[in-house]
Structure formats: structure tokens, C-alpha cells
């Protein structure tokens, strides 16, 4: 069993690749819910939906969020009525938010709702929220502390970042299926997807028990750098690193994670950083990491799985 | 000030006519909320929406509910996800349900939400729910007691009707603006729209205080028969009357309301019933009552307003 920790687009693309090379019994994708929020009375789980839609093949590849072949009549009517229109909800996408919200209000857990929705969309691999409890990423900026979506969508990542806070994380527990995996002794490796380290991976690691579990692990952790050639492929990761006075490069990312990661997968564009990262005591594998299509994702996933197995063999 | 009591389609059509011949300060439309229900976690107010959309000119004239130029991507996605699909919610229509539900959850009253939505849709005349408290029409049938929408939409009015119950009515109070009107002494007449007497008008009359107010009134009540030529123009009114062993005719309707109505407006098709109704001690005016278009509605409304004024003058 391989566990992948994923945020939005980068996580979704790698999840598709991993799902192509691993059977359902061999893969569990654990998704960040720190960017979940209540909007218009609806519970929206942006990262879970991006990964779910992508695994189901119904995602919108242009935007990186929402569904393909989407229409916007709801938003048009909402604007006419003076409703809040800074966060776009497509007509088809709405069905997920409405069903999720209804089920949560009726007492279902986020894990249960996610499993139900994913199953109905034809997703066969396990898709798990990091926790059933609300953990909400707060971005501390020069303009004050902002809820994640206010920072990300409303403010378009413009405010200068000073730090992060994961409200609710102290009281959270890993989702039951994740807890079961953590206690199973059946994990052969963990993959950190090329997701934002601060707002996609950090919220997962902030759930009590997860970091300790990784510290005492008997399996390798491999990671794909979300920074390639000094830039994030998607989103504000590089901008955040610069604002936090970190080195916005694959090496800076490796330094940030430290001993949490055993092996780094970096892009050919960053081949010159291999020695720097190896000097930190980490393994490095240089390959194509840009997932231009599901075929690229599957190739990268196969490389990762082979790397996990090699590192696991070296441990024995 | 004229007050109109309205249900769905018939009420909406007459409301449009009244709004065409009366200024905003001269008309308040009080709408049945007995068919409101919670669906998919959303508060749906079918009659309020039908009247609001019709007054705003954005109604769907074919269906009698929902908005014109509607699309159904939400329902398509909902069905794919295995969601409950017996009640259709259009993509544009959804904006109203989502905003209303959000505002109600945030503590607004149904009156406040209705006023806000109507204003934003450009409705200038007062549109009032009968009550801000939940009153839920239950239909007692040969198949047992059914929630109104289960009877009306899910069962398509097939079960044989034995009676009605308005759950919550005992604890309800008229909406604040309606209470203010009731105490104002400024009412010059009340119009019973051609709405279903059992499931549109009766829930309004079941709100404590309204029937007593009408009993001690100093203004005339005029009504338009919802039954023309022995048939309801829309909906199950005639079927219900037959099942309740009532005379499914304009005369049967007049008998049903008794002294609550001073003057009846019946269609030329029912001219032969004039004497029967007059023998009950009620006034009768025979005219065209079928509202084929807003122009017909306005003509009927003008006739009604003149009739109200004549009856009011006769009282003095």
C-alpha cells in the first residue's frame, strides 16, 4: 500500500498517474482539507473535489478546478440577485456541494461523504480527507490574517505572506481510514505529491499524530518538487517562499522538508541542484516531472513507485 | 390598500394584473407558504417563487414554476451522483434557494429574505409570506398522510384526498408586515386569487388571527373562482373537490367559502351558476376570468378593483 499526500492540481495529476499504475488495494490518496470552507451555506472542499474530479476524469483541465463542460447559469442568477460572486460554483459542480452539505448536516462524516461521491463518480482508489474534523488554513499576511480562500481567490494571493496557522488542527484527528492505515503496518511508502508545502502539505502534517507517525516510519517517503526551475507550476508556492525568505527552488523545498523526505524527484531542469540536495543527506532522482497529460502522470508515477521500492529495499 | 391572498400559478397571474393596475403603495400580495419544504438541505418556497418570478417577468410560462430560459446541468449532475431527483431545481432557480437558505440560517426571517430577493428581481409591490413561522401542508390521503410536495410532485396528486392538516399553524403568526396591515385600518378590500382553496388559500386562513380578522372586517372580500366549467385551470382543485364529495364547480367553491367572500367573479362559461351563488347571499360578477396573458390579467384585475370599490361603496 502506497499513501499519497495531495493538495489540489499537482496532487490530482500525480494521483491519476498513481491510480494508473497501482491497483485500488495498493493506493490511498490523502487530501488536504485546510482550504475547505463554507460558502453560501455550502461546504466546499476544493482540494478533495479537484482530486476526485481528476481521478474520475471529469475535471476541467484548463482551470485546474471544477468540472469540464461546465455551465454558469447559477452564478449568473446569483449575481443578478446580488449574491456573493467572488467564488465561482459551476452548475454541475454545485451538485457535489449540495449533496455533501446535506449529508454532513444529516450527520455523515466528511470521509463517508467523500467515499460516496467518489464511488458514484467511478473513482475506484481510496480518496480520504486528511481529517473529518474542520482544519482551516489561515494565511498571516501584511494585510492581516486571512481565511485561505480570501487570500487565494478573493485577494488572488497578492498580500505578502508572513506565516500560516491551521485553525482547529489541535483538536483534529486523522480520518478513520487514515488512522487504520497508520496502524496497519502495511504501508510500503509514502509519496508527497508536488503540492504547495505551506497550504497543501503542511495542513495535513499539522493533524496530530501524522508527523509523529512519519518520524517513526519504517517505509520511505519520496517527494516530487512542486518548484521547477525556480517557479511553481501552479499557484503561489514560489511567491510564498520568496516572501518567507526561503530559497524558491527544488533545493529550498528539500531544505524545508528536511528529514521528512528520504528521496527527492526533481525535474531535468533542476539537475544542477542534485548535489546540493544530496549533500543534505537526501536521495535524488532526476526525471521529467511536468505532468502535461495523464500519460506523463503515469510515467512519473511508475518512476516514483520504482523509487519507493528501491529505497525500501535499501532500508532492509 | 388592497391585499391579495395568493397560491401559485393562478395567484401569480392575478398578482401581475393587480400590480399593473395598482401602485406599490396600493397592493400587498400575501402568499401561501404551506407548500414550502426543505429539499437537499435547501429551503424551497414554491408559491412565493412562482409569484415573485411572475411579478418580475422572469417566470417560465410553460411550466407554471421556475424561471424562463432555465438550464438543468445541476439536475443532470445530481442524478449522476445518485441524488434525489424527483423535484426539479433549475440552475438559475437554485440561486434563489441557496441565497434564501443561507439568509435563513444566518437568522433572517422569511419576510426579510423574500423582500430582499423580490427587490433584487425588480418587484416593486409588497410580496409577503403568510407567516415567517413554518406551516406545512399535509395531505391526508387513502395512502396515508403525505407532505404536500410528496403528494403534489412525487405522487402527482394521484392518491385520493380525504383531508388536510397544516402542521405548525397553531404556533404561527401572520408575517409582521401582514400584522401591520391587519391593524392599519387602511385595507380597502381583499382579493382571493383563483388559487386552490384547500392547499393555497386554506393554509393562509389557518394562520391564527387571519380568519378572525376577516370575520370582523370593514372591507369587502372578492374572489375569483379557481374552477371554470367544472375544471381547475391548473392543479388538482377539481379532483380534490370530487374526492371530498363537494360540488366541483364555481358554485361549490362559493359554498365552500360561505360568508368569507362578499362577491364572486366567475367566468362567462359559468354564467348559469350566477343565480345559485346569488341565492347564497353572495354578489356575482360574470366576466372573462381566464388569464391567457398579462393583458388578460390586467383586465381582470381592473374589473376586480372596480368591483371591490363598488362593494365598499355599497357598505357605506
In short:
The structure is a homodimer of 316-residue chains. In chain A, helix 1 runs parallel beside helix 2, helix 1 packs across helix 13 and helix 4 runs antiparallel to helix 5.
What topology does this entry show?
The structure is a homodimer of 316-residue chains.
Chain A: E1 2-6, H1 9-21, E2 27-31, E3 37-39, E4 42-44, H2 46-56, H3 73-80, H4 91-105, H5 110-120, E5 126-129, E6 136-141, E7 144-147, H6 148-154, E8 161-167, H7 176-184, E9 189-192, H8 197-205, H9 210-215, E10 221-224, E11 227-228, E12 231-232, H10 237-243, H11 250-257, E13 263-267, H12 274-279, E14 283-287, H13 294-315
Parallel strand pairs in A: 1-2, 1-9, 2-5, 9-10, 10-13, 13-14
Antiparallel strand pairs in A: 3-4, 6-7, 6-8, 11-12
Describe the structure.
Two copies of one chain form a homodimer. By secondary structure, the first copy, chain A, is α/β, with parallel strands linked by helices. The first copy, chain A, has a single domain (2-226), classed as CofD-like domains (Rossmann fold). Helices cover 42% and strands 19% of the residues of chain A. Chain A is built from 13 helices and 14 strands. The first copy, chain A, has helices at 9-21, 46-56, 73-80, 91-105, 110-120, 148-154, 176-184, 197-205, 210-215, 237-243, 250-257, 274-279, 294-315; strands at residues 2-6, 27-31, 37-39, 42-44, 126-129, 136-141, 144-147, 161-167, 189-192, 221-224, 227-228, 231-232, 263-267, 283-287. In chain A, a hairpin with a 2-residue loop joins strand 3 and strand 4. The radius of gyration of chain A is 19 Å and the shape is globular. The mean pLDDT of chain A is 96. The A-B interface holds A 40-42, 67, 70-71, 73-78, 80-83, 90-96, 98-99, 101-102, 105, 116-117, 120-121 and B 40-42, 67, 70-71, 73-74, 76-78, 80-83, 90-96, 98-99, 101-102, 105, 116-117, 120-121.
Amino acid at each position: 500500500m502506497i499513501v499519497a499526500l495531495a493538495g489540489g492540481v499537482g496532487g490530482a495529476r500525480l494521483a491519476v498517474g498513481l491510480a494508473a499504475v497501482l491497483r485500488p488495494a495498493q493506493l490511498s490518496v490523502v487530501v488536504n482539507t485546510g482550504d475547505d470552507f463554507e460558502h453560501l451555506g455550502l461546504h466546499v472542499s476544493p482540494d478533495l473535489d479537484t482530486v476526485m474530479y481528476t481521478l474520475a476524469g471529469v475535471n476541467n483541465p484548463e482551470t485546474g478546478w471544477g468540472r469540464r463542460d461546465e455551465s454558469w447559469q447559477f452564478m449568473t442568477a446569483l449575481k443578478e440577485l446580488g449574491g456573493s460572486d467572488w467564488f465561482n460554483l459551476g452548475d454541475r459542480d454545485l451538485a457535489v456541494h449540495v449533496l455533501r452539505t446535506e449529508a454532513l448536516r444529516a450527520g455523515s462524516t466528511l470521509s463517508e461523504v467523500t467515499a460516496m461521491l467518489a464511488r458514484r463518480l467511478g473513482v475506484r482508489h481510496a480518496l480520504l480527507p486528511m481529517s473529518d474534523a474542520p482544519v482551516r488554513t489561515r494565511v498571516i499576511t501584511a494585510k492581516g490574517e486571512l481565511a485561505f480562500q480570501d487570500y487565494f481567490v478573493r485577494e488572488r494571493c497578492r498580500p505578502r505572506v508572513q506565516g500560516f496557522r491551521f485553525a482547529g488542527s489541535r483538536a483534529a484527528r486523522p480520518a478513520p481510514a487514515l488512522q487504520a492505515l497508520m496502524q496497519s503496518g502495511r504501508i510500503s511508502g509514502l509519496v508527497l505529491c508536488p503540492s504547495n508545502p505551506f497550504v497543501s502539505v503542511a495542513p495535513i502534517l499539522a493533524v496530530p499524530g501524522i508527523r509523529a507517525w512519519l518520524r517513526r516510519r519504517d517505509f520511505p517517503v519520496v517527494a516530487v518538487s512542486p518548484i521547477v526551475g525556480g517557479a511553481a507550476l501552479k499557484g503561489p508556492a514560489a511567491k510564498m517562499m520568496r516572501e518567507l525568505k526561503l530559497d524558491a527552488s527544488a533545493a529550498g523545498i528539500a531544505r524545508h522538508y528536511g528529514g521528512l523526505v528520504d528521496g527527492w524527484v526533481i525535474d531535468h531542469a533542476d539537475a544542477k541542484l542534485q548535489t546540493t540536495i544530496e549533500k543534505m543527506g537526501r536521495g535524488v532522482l532526476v526525471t521529467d516531472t511536468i505532468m502535461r497529460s495523464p500519460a506523463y502522470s503515469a510515467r512519473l508515477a511508475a518512476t516514483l513507485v520504482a523509487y519507493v521500492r528501491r529505497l525500501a529495499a535499501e532500508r532492509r
